[in-house]
Task: structure prediction
Amino acid sequence: MRRGLILSIMVVCLCANAVLAIDWLNYTGNWNDVAGWVDGRLPTGQEEVKIRGTETVCTLNTSTGDWGVGQRLRVYEGATLLIEQGAELLGAGWMRVGAGSPGTVIQTGGAVILKDGKDKARLGIGDSAGSDGLYIISGGTITHESAGNGDLLIGARGGKGKLVVVGDKPVIAMRTLTVGDQAGASGTLEFQIGPAGVSPVKISNSVTLDPLGDQTTAALMVTAAGSPPTKDIVLVDLAAETAVTGVFDTVNGAAATEGAQVVVTGGGRECTYTLTYAGGTGNDIALLYQSSRQVPLLADQFETAHDYILEELDGYDGLLDPGHILALNASITRPGALYLQTQGASWDPGPGPMLYKLVTGDFVATVKVVDFAGTLVERVFHNDCGILARDPNEANENWVSVNYFPTWTAFVARSTLNGFRDEVGQTAGIWTGTDTFAIAAQYPYIQLERKGSKFYPRISSDGINFVPLTDPPYVGIYNPDDPDQRPLVIDRPDLPQTLQVGLINATYGVTTGYVAFDDLQICVPVQIAVVNASFEDDGKVIEGGVPVGWTANDQGNSGLAMGPSATDGTYFFWQGNGRVLWQTTSEVIAAEGLTYLLQVDVRNSWQGSPQIGLYYLDGETRVLLGTASLPAVGDTWPGPVTLELEVKTTAESVGKRLGVELSLANYPGNYWAEFDNVRLSLR
Result:
């Protein structure tokens, strides 16, 4: 009888100590969907949560509830956990991403709060031998419950793990960081830097990198999620006075010793930094800014022999209408040039033959025409070529082009809307006796720029100084001193952000034609970060105060408001009487003659004359590079209006920081205007 009692007690004790589990297995849905849980119920926090299976995607955008002492959470067997805005993961004492098999967490928002208890608030990415864990965070927070625990391990207990931090929005605050934990471990810490930099991983106690040397691996990756900034960037912020233990084996594949050079390219800019383990307060892992330069999204001199029909597209994203292309090659038919020969092709409305790159947002595309089928005496009807920007949605043809077209008009621009083509900007007509081939030969470069919804077709003799096509057409080459001429601007607000941008040729009939191009460049603007650019960061409406990130000489009766005037939630209203609001950015001016574009949404509140300016900071003095303003016209503006200012940098401004000013043009009285969505770019 006593033996049976002892056995019963042992069974009860074993059950009490066993780790219970609840599984989400091979199901795609929301955490709160009970159908995803094998037991048909939600986790209570009294068991280990296992999200597993190759067909599993679990989305968390609400609270899991507080799990008390904290149990384990495992994401493995190929599963993916999505943590979104509104999520509260309150319970895990040990969160294992990839545990003996692959697992992925993608966090775009919400809060992960690791709990104390027997598992000590740990996040292991790639946890245990055979694992492959990936954690990508672009928003939200990862924190732990108290200062006593909170270990972040990338490549934990011999596993393979990777943490990717995207941009400046996420917050990661833990007690310790270890990259490469225990023999056989491989850990990678990657930062994707945007215009405002990147959020540092904040560590309160200690940082350990590659602790076992030959037995562990620690890698640092630094890439771009936009235009990298011209400033020092802290990657790991260590609050304790102790130094970082160890160094990364590699940074972007090269040696990661103190002072290693790191080059980051993205969003039209290449920045060079040096890596230090003694940055910031003396023990932070940081990138120290050295230099920057603008780089094209695509630059092709066509010097290497390549056949785009028989081989891969070699850096381009697509080819349209290949059935009408007889030849498309670089440095084969024409050495040092792209040769495009077509027959029976048409862009009326299209699609016709086109070699293109996908481009998102604003761009400037430029190319030189070095050979063209036909002469004035022996024309090839109706040979045509140019740069075209097309909506990838092929339900209807929607595009804008600038065309080198000596066959008839020297140059022309076209705009096709829902399959209906409009021709604008013609420079001449061959039927009047004009030698359009001679005109075209003087201007071998053509250019198409996108700025928001507007497109600007231009021509150039040297590839440096560009002349706009004219509106109305047939008034010759643009002359700014002629009051009858104005630059052609094609407004296409219907076109999406991402377009196919590339080179075309067509003869609009059975005729065979060709063109040879050289010096193709597609450049995109470098986005410059402006703190609190849309006046949303204050968290509340303020009056008589200065918005976060900005400085004012005299606030007066001004502040933040919400209402129909705003283009984005909250806007800034500004009273006159010589008041100025300004912000010096982190942008360091690299050279003379650079073009910066400032765009601000403005609206007249009452008799206001809004003014915007760009300056460089010389010591403590703001030196204006230029201003732009709108007249005070009562309350009659259709608002908001986008006010633009384009300036060139001067020799005196090189090496100085760039800043933005908002004012009411020193208006003398109680006048108001509104400002919103400040955008600054290097063109």
